[in-house]
Amino acid sequence: MTTQTAPAPAPESAPPGIHRAWSVAAVAFVTIIGAAAFASLPGLLIEPLHEEFDWSRGTIGLAVSVNLALYGLTAPFAAALMDRFGIRKVVAIALTVISAGSVATVWMTASWQLVMYWGVLVGLGSGSMALAFAATVTNRWFVARRGLVTGVLTAAGASGQLIFLPLLAWLVEHHGWRPAAVTVSLAALTVVPFVWLLLRDHPADIGLAPYGGTYAPKPAPALGAARRTVTVLFTAARTGPFWLLAGTFAICGASTNGLVKTHFVPSAHDHGMPVTAAAGLLAVIGVFDVIGTVFSGWLTDRFDARRLLVVYYALRGISLLFLPMLLAPSVHPPMLLFIVFYGLDWVATVPPTIALCREHYGEDSAIVFGWVLASHQVGAALVAFLGGLARDAFGSYDLVWYASGALCAMAALMAMVIRRRPAAAPLPA
Predict the structure, then answer these.
(1) Is the pTM value of this prediction over 0.70?
(2) N or C: which end of the chain has fewer CB within 10 A?
(3) Tens digits of per-residue pLDDT, 249-262?
(4) Percent of the chain that is helix, strand, coil (3-state, to 5)
């Protein structure tokens, strides 16, 4: 007896009107905005959890650091998971895990539960989406306008931060941290039906060509994708540029997600600033983050990526050295100037870092950047934890700001010694 498999949908030209790729991109945009809710919360939880449970800031910072580390370490494998099991399944499961981890914190009574729920569950869920989600959607569904869609999906994270940070800060200040945690859980869970019903893994699933491209059958699942991810890491680790790029990007993560996103609100609160005002400043950083990223991409097309990194890290370090003198009970013009600059500089390092990965590692550059991104999150995790310990030990965050400024100066020096490669080439076998 022979069995027959259902034929694949016949290739079709795009129907008149709006191409299906745009609806897929819209679902991805909404998903990333919903995901921004859980990225916005950690810095708002430090003071409330410290006051209610009398946990040290170092203990709370440990949960945040586990979250950031798992986010980074999961990210390189996320694309492999999506290749193997499909975008829709991976993202739906990731959002469900995030929702469960967030709502479980409402009933926690011990600090290890915070590490397990917020650190492990939310960290694994968020890492399974990370940058791989946006990259996979744009690579599969778009040929034309790919850069535009990538930029829009990248901006969705900052847009979500702008939406959720003030709301979550208001909930924490007026109703406590539990309603904020439930809001994050509901935001993640609400997106799941849209992902499951409207997201599709590949244009060929519905007989379409990608937007601006020609029809191509859906490729077979890449069974060896995870193994290749590890192989590329070991090969890249034998080259000097990899360690310089990973080192500079680790400092980037330390000085953004690990430091400012996690500890700016409690540090400003130490100086008498209301939580809602400090969270509002972080939201403003998200606005200028979008502008800075787009402008940095434009500069990367025109100038030496190494020199751009030197300038970005040097200016970031100088700004961090001045921050302790700017913190005050109210928002004033010099603080706004810091916020605007830090927003412009926040992920300005990403386009030149990607360009240098492409220059040195050619067709393997996407995987190499995944591992460089992992170092970014490991750096963020270390500073999220150590920043809390320093606050417990010294009674203020001043030393943390100064040390981070010095680290950024080190990153500028590291970027300066990265050697140029005339032509991109794949890693040697």
Answers:
(1) yes
(2) N
(3) 999 999 988 888 88
(4) 80, 0, 20
